[in-house]
Design goal:
The complex is a heterodimer of chains A (102) and B (537). Chain A is mainly α and 102 residues long. Chain A has 3 helices and no strands. Chain A has one domain. In chain A, helix 1 runs antiparallel to helix 2. Chain A is flat. Chain B is mostly helical and 537 residues long. Chain B has one domain: Cytochrome C Oxidase, Chain A. Chain B contains 15 helices and no strands. The termini of chain B are close together. Classes of the chains: A mainly alpha (102), B mainly alpha (537). Chains A and B meet through helix 3 of A and helix 7, helix 8 and helix 10 of B.
Amino acid sequence: MNHHIVPLKIYFAIFAALMAGTALTVWAAFQDFGEFNTLVAVVIAVVKAALVVLFFMHVKYSDKLIWVFASAGFIWLIILFAFTLMDPMTRDWLPVGAPLPM
Amino acid sequence: MKEESAATVNYLNCDYSIRSWLLTVDHKRIGIMYLLAVTVFFLIGGIMATLFRFELSTAAGDLVTAETYNKLFTLHGVVMVFFFLIPSVPAVLGNFVLPLAIGAKDVAFPKLNLLSWYVFMIGGGITLFVALTGGLDTGWTFYTPYSSTYATTDVLSAAIGVFITGFSSILTGLNFLVTIHKMRAPGMTWMRMPLFVWALYATSLIMVLATPVLAITVALLAVERATGIGIFDPALGGDPVLFQHMFWFYSHPAVYIMILPSMGVISELVATFCRRRIFGYSFVAASSIAIAVIGFFVWGHHLFLSTQSVYAGMVFSFLSFLVAVPSAVKTFNWTATMYKSSVSWQSPMLYVMGFMGLFLVGGLTGVVLATLGLDVHMHDTYFVVAHFHYIMVGGVLMGYLGGLHYWWPKITGRMYSEAWAKVSALLVFVGFNLTFMPQFILGYLGMPRRYYAYPPEWQTLNVLSSAGASVLGVGYLIPVIYLLWSLRHGKPAPANPWGGKGLEWTIASPPTPHNFEKPVIVTEGAYAYGEGGHGHG
């Protein structure tokens, strides 16, 4: 059982970082990064989630078994995203308004 | 064998009040509460199946309307998948046996265990409420855009019911993982664990890693239906195929949530009734984990004809073939264990033989369906219906019934009628094949699934299938009768009626409230039947 006591200032620092991340998300939503729009939003979200998992959920101070299970969650998320994206990224998309192939 | 005194206090007679059951944190009692719940759900799902098999006895749609037929097969699927097949082996047999098998007094989080039962009942209650208030007609797969845009039935309530039930599954999986990691008796190393425990471990991994995605998927469906925000509806900027990807990311591994624990049961039964350590123990243990992991990379084989790209289809087709490898490892090793052993043909072993036959047919037809080109012909036909019933009903139910018969003396302290148990095993096997073998042919001939009427030339095969379903129904009903009968009239069970080597057989039948009266120390691996493999427990 882990009894690591985290100083309050770390919690406040992480909270401030999360708020900054939220502000960054709102700002990024109004910018046009072209095809990177989604990627930017996902990267900010992953960083914020990692901060919550590492500090608020104490994974940073936990033993290796907890690390394995916490990492598994992220790895499985990557499996979901990667193998789902494999489909639309390799589809034969027709341009909007194009005639249907005969 | 050590005969236990019937006068000792056990987990059943320690307190008879209803309150003591409803507030129990004893894993054994929670297992029994799950047993009662899933039996009721199985009965409800079975009634739906009986009704639509009646409808399919004639070519014309003459018993129920098309809309009612849609509701019947939808509720059959939803109830059987989410409220029977997924919880049956892990939540009933797993809850009862797991702590006993590893020498623990309970699971790691007993209160969480009780919570998971209540969450399950709430989810099930909401879904049954939908059945009573107009039904659901989307099919158990809830495919969009029909479910999100066009269906007029209460999709939202059903989605909420399934969403809630998913949390029950997550809680059970989490509980089992922590229990297996932290609660094993001294000396119970990973490679000494019974294979049923390995199977429950692999199952729990899937429950924890996959079920949240189902929750997210049905939540997004509910959000789109309730608010009109475009997620799956193309008219709103969504993608209906995204729903299928997310749904099958959970629902394909869910098949392994169903079959893996049954495979674990089969390993226990083969070892006990062949009086042998399972051949290739470490490979059978590792194959459970391999099935759990590889099972996450194959979901796209459900989308070959759903506008999924050909490239993705090829990748998913190839990966799907890989699941056959660890499945075959298990089947070959069970067979090798039986080879030249002195098999004891008691009723649980008959269920093992049934499992092997039905799972083999289900598994091999799965390879057929995973083949990209062949699936174009077979997709959404009765061939698919037959295939997944061979796995999910033939395989899972044979394992569940085999396990229930095997552990029944431990659960209740009573022996059942061996003769009736053999009759029932035979009826289930014959009835099952008569029901679903004709469906392979119907599917190959092109009969699509989910239709309430069909051309007259397919009537003979459909009548055969409906007749088989009647035999199957009787085969399922008989155990209910003789198992209930055994509670009052069965002979008292000894501690170890089958000569098993698991820790659960070293304690009284039924066990005391805290399972083990003395600290357990494990000094040998599972299935230690001695040299030559003919030792008796």
